[in-house]
């Protein structure tokens, strides 16, 4: 298993990658579903699919419940304490959320994922890589290098200790478009998860970095990801 991959040649939308899996007639679990954007795509793009979608934010959970999606059951719980029966899930999904689990609970979360998976079931864990121009910009005000390393180490340890078998590791990149710096600021800097107060001085440095890529004009940056597909070892 590799933390990073510098030679990524596959540029795709992750939606395409997900739909290469056999998801029809499956019961799936998404941990850290957020606004349930990916949840709804998975639930409604096939036949006889059920998704149990978990979120820890109470306000977001209430908003999700109001969606009233017939193929989705929303639950308020975290990955370290999943409110789902043993051996009941075909596939577990985590999209850019594993590194948000507190480090002290990461191993517990993997234990929980194994508990709820059916024998030989799969966990699909997608994590952003700490590399590339897009990451360099965001890291100036929201640096996740250490938590991403810890997330990788926990996932790798679950394979090394035979909790899971590494079925496949996939590296890919997605395109992220910005019309200008204001567009970048709205999409990346003015979001609720940023814990750093962005001063005028820091904002100026970020803008200078952004402008260095394409003279401040519209730009498409590549955001790299690693997907670890783990199979439960019975």
- E-strand count: 7
Strand content: 25-35%
The gross shape turns out to be globular
Separate helix tally: 8
Strand order of the largest sheet: 3-2-1-4-5-7-6
The SSE string, one letter per element, is HEHEHEEHEHHEHHE
Structural class: alpha/beta
Uncertain stretches of 5 or more adjacent residues: none
Distance between the ends? 21 Å
Q: How is this structure best described in words?
A:
The protein has 234 residues and is an alpha/beta fold. 34% of the residues lie in helices and 27% in strands. The chain is built from eight helices and seven strands. The chain has helices spanning 14-18, 37-44, 58-65, 106-116, 133-139, 145-160, 181-189, 200-214; strands at residues 27-31, 50-55, 72-76, 89-95, 117-128, 164-178, 219-232. A seven-stranded mixed beta sheet has the order 3-2-1-4-5-7-6, with helices on both faces. β4 (89-95), α4 and β5 form a beta-alpha-beta unit.
What secondary-structure arrangement, pairings included, does this model have?
Blueprint: H1 14-18, E1 27-31, H2 37-44, E2 50-55, H3 58-65, E3 72-76, E4 89-95, H4 106-116, E5 117-128, H5 133-139, H6 145-160, E6 164-178, H7 181-189, H8 200-214, E7 219-232
Parallel strand pairs: 1-2, 1-4, 2-3, 4-5
Antiparallel strand pairs: 5-7, 6-7
GO molecular function: rRNA (adenine-N6,N6-)-dimethyltransferase activity
InterPro entries: Diverse_substrate_MTase, Methyltransf_11, rRNA_Ade_Mease_Trfase_CS, SAM-dependent_MTases_sf
Family: Belongs to the methyltransferase superfamily.
């Amino acid at each position: 298993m590799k933390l990073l991959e510098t030679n990524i040649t596959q540029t795709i939308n992750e939606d395409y990658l997900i739909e290469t899996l056999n998801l029809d007639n499956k019961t799936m679990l998404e941990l850290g579903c957020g606004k349930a954007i990916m949840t709804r795509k998975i639930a409604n793009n096939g036949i006889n699919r059920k998704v149990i979608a978990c979120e820890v934010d109470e306000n977001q959970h209430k908003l999700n419940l109001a969606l009233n999606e017939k193929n989705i059951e929303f639950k308020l719980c975290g990955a370290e304490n999943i409110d789902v029966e043993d051996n009941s899930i075909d596939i577990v999904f985590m999209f850019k959320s594993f590194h948000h689990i507190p480090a002290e609970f990461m191993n517990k979360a993997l234990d929980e994922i194994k508990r709820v998976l059916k024998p030989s079931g799969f966990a699909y864990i997608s994590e952003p890589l700490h590399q590339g121009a897009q990451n360099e910009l965001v890291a100036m005000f929201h640096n996740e290098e250490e938590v991403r390393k810890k997330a990788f180490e926990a996932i790798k340890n679950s394979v090394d200790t035979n909790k899971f078998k590494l079925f496949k590791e996939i590296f890919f990149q997605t395109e992220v478009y910005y019309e200008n710096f204001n567009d970048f600021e709205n999409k990346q800097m003015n979001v609720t998860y940023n814990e750093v107060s962005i001063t005028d001085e820091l904002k100026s440095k970020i803008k200078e970095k952004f402008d260095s890529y394409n003279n401040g004009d519209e730009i498409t940056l590549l955001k790299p990801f690693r997907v670890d597909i783990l199979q439960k070892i019975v």
